[in-house]
Amino acid sequence: MTIWNDYQLVYSLSEAVEAYDQAEKPVRFVSGGTDLLLEIQQGSHPAMNTLIDLNHIDELRELRVMGELIFIGAAVPVSQITNSPLIKEHAMAVAEATGLIGGPQVRNSATLGGNVAHALPAADGMISLVAMNATAISYSHTDYSKKNILDLFKGTGESALEKDEILVGFEFPVKKSGEGSAFDRVMRPQGVALPILNIAVWLRRKGDVIDDIRIAFGPSGPVPTRALKVEEVIRGKKLTDVTISRAKETILESMKFRTSKKRATAEYRYLLAQALLEKVVSKAWNRAGETK
Ligand SMILES: Cc1cc2nc3c(=O)[nH]c(=O)nc-3n(C[C@H](O)[C@H](O)[C@H](O)COP(=O)(O)OP(=O)(O)OC[C@H]3O[C@@H](n4cnc5c(N)ncnc54)[C@H](O)[C@@H]3O)c2cc1C
């Protein structure tokens, strides 16, 4: 089958937008192609006349510290993110999440931009960015704009990005003393794509108290969200069995996991969520105690 007729390489954001405007439609941006090309091949996405490849835009391939912020370009292959000493130092949740996407071949092509733009509520990299409270930088027409990562989604598989809007990258604050993050997930044994459930946690400890915390589970609804009620129960508390047990009760009371035919029942997801919460909060807590 024909997946595309015209495949264009572009070298700057303005060139990408111009190519998009002038392309014979339908047209789509592509980065690693590990979602888009497979979906077209498998018939779950219409074939495109034009694909515009974003991989040669330098800005989208940068991974660096900018003052107090870490910037990860939208087209950096996730294997590079996983192995980056910078990301391991500042955002272990992101290093762990990207390190679990597919297998080595997929990770050498897949990008965080594609993971987020595909808008699936269990996407591993995306969930880690939610816990990091990342800001997404995008480019449309001639302007850059910044949005919180949670403002990029309209529904399952439905991004809030304009069709000609390009994700440039993601930024979040550098890790400060007392902060730590972690990610984990449970897959079906034969699973290679999205998990049954994943979780990312960022927290800050002050003495023996969890001073602040962010928790994201995926999937937990049609669009990604934070587990705000669970966060509330933990924030300001010591990490004790009582705190964890109250947080687990709050998962049962406040989270809306659903049964999905291909992955798991809602009941199983509630069990996993409780076990993963305890494990991943403890991991983030221990990391937050390490000296920088
Ligand atoms: C075998 C296999 C295993 C996988 N396992 C996992 C897994 O464990 N966890 C997981 O989360 N995912 C998994 N995936 C899905 C996929 O690899 C990831 O979602 C990946 O990060 C997508 O990135 P990409 O660059 O390949 O996206 P692409 O396929 O290039 O693009 C996906 C979508 O995003 C849009 N897009 C891409 N880049 C941009 C940009 N910069 N700006 C705007 N729009 C953009 C495209 O137009 C398209 O709509 C797996 C896929 C395969 C094939």
Give the topology, please:
Blueprint: E1 6-9, H1 13-22, E2 27-30, H2 36-42, E3 50-53, E4 63-66, E5 69-73, H3 78-83, H4 85-90, H5 92-99, H6 104-109, H7 112-117, H8 124-131, E6 135-140, E7 143-148, E8 153-155, E9 158-159, E10 166-173, E11 179-186, E12 197-206, E13 209-218, H9 228-234, E14 237-238, H10 241-254, H11 266-288
Parallel strand pairs: 1-3, 2-3
Antiparallel strand pairs: 4-5, 5-10, 6-7, 6-10, 8-9, 11-12, 12-13, 13-14
Helix pairs in contact: 5-8, 9-10, 10-11
Flavin-adenine dinucleotide binds next to β2, α2, α6, α7 and α8.
Give your account of this protein's structure.
By secondary structure, the protein is of the alpha+beta class. It folds into 3 domains: 6-53; 58-173, 2-Layer Sandwich (Uridine Diphospho-n-acetylenolpyruvylglucosamine Reductase, domain 3); 184-288, CO dehydrogenase flavoprotein, C-terminal domain (Enolase-like, domain 1). It has 11 helices and 14 strands. It has helices spanning 13-22, 36-42, 78-83, 85-90, 92-99, 104-109, 112-117, 124-131, 228-234, 241-254, 266-288, and strands at 6-9, 27-30, 50-53, 63-66, 69-73, 135-140, 143-148, 153-155, 158-159, 166-173, 179-186, 197-206, 209-218, 237-238. The strands form 4 sheets. A 5-stranded antiparallel beta sheet has the order 4-5-10-6-7. A 4-stranded antiparallel beta sheet has the order 11-12-13-14. It has a 3-stranded parallel beta sheet with strand order 1-3-2, covered by helices on one side. β6 (135-140) and β7 (143-148) form a beta hairpin. The longest helix has 23 residues, at 266-288. It is globular and about 60 Å long. The chain starts with 5 loop residues before the first strand and ends with a helix. The model has no long low-confidence stretch (mean pLDDT 95). Bound molecules: flavin-adenine dinucleotide (FAD). Residues 28-36, 38, 54, 74-75, 100-102, 106, 109-111, 113-115, 117-118, 123-125, 161, 166-167, 192-194 line the site of flavin-adenine dinucleotide.
